[in-house]
Amino acid sequence: MVINVLIILCMDNPQINNITVALAMTGDEQGMIQYAMHYAEMFNASLTVIHVQDPHAGGMSMMMDAPEKFSEEDISNLLAECGINDAHSVSIQVVESESPSQAIGEAAKDTDLLVLGHRQMSTFKSNFMDSVDEGIVNNVTCPVLVVPKRA
Question: DSSP of 104-119, one letter per residue?
Fold first, then answer.
């Protein structure tokens, strides 16, 4: 179903030259990376991988564990695990921001297709907050392919 929608989308706008995939580095993103690579190859498009780093990542906190800090090398290694052996052909960006949706929206200004992952929230949690991917979709002007993450 998702593939058919994307193909129709591309027929209306055949200019898919730049694809951006946003990674949270949660360890379950191989599927979305493979989708992004598939479409980059299909349309001969450039691929950019972005990770938004929390400004407190890697630091110490008295209240809770600080998020893990990831480097471009960590992302390159993940791409290699997904079968992308020429990670130099992929542009990798690590951006620091407290707002992933705004940072990804800014980074995706010149992209033709944005690929995101989605993990379903519990009903309780979804009553109090929007998902990050929903915030991103609200901040971008390009088409978005949302790939479900399997826990």
Answer: HHHHTTT-SEEEEEE-
The reported pLDDT for the residue numbered 130 is 53
pTM above 0.85, yes or no: no
Within 10 angstroms of residue 121's Cβ, the number of other Cβ atoms is 14
Topology classification of domain 17-56+64-148: Rossmann fold (3.40.50)
Token pair belonging to 6: 């994307």
| Mean predicted lDDT score pLDDT of the chain | 78
Strand partners, 53: 96
- CA 21/CA 123 separation, integer angstroms: 27
For residue 31 the two structure tokens come to 């599927």
Kindly list the domain boundaries of the chain, sorted by start residue: 17-56+64-148
